[in-house]
Amino acid sequence: GKGTGNVTIGGINVDTGAASKAAGKIIGENVANIQNQFSLQTAYKDALSLLNQGIYAGGYGPEKKFIAKYTGVGSPAKVENTEVFMANIGEIVIPRLQQFGGNDSNEELKYLQNVVAGNERLEPESMRRILSSAEKKVQNNIERLRLQTQSAKGGTELPITPLTPPVQTPTKRWNPQTRKLETVTGE
Q: pTM here?
């Protein structure tokens, strides 16, 4: 909801009206562009699916793909999966490259390809972990936008913290001296 005036937090004056107006504008723009988040989510899921089906990756991945493609020694299905995988990565990299703005360079492109598992020399398990992490971040962005939109309708506070699971505190620990699980007392 729209703020009612200035608030002092730790000696800093905050105009809550201006802050809520700015936050509303940003949230509105993000909601208007929600399709980008859904497209990214689909691209990550498709890339993970192809990776699970098998692609040429790792230290000699590009060379193995070349051999399979041009000599017939290897898996044509893996060649196809690898090519489609790289196209999916392109669907992820291009919007990110546009976010950088300005004059896009080959260095920026290579950096973003590495960030989103688009380097064929990465090990498949590394790619899987990178893609899974990125897909979770997109899902969190979508959920955060959903919550922010709901809160705007009801005039409640906006969630401004990252969506993370609650911290779990251990209740028992292993004592190697007594060789038993003991209750944690908070000492």
A: 0.67
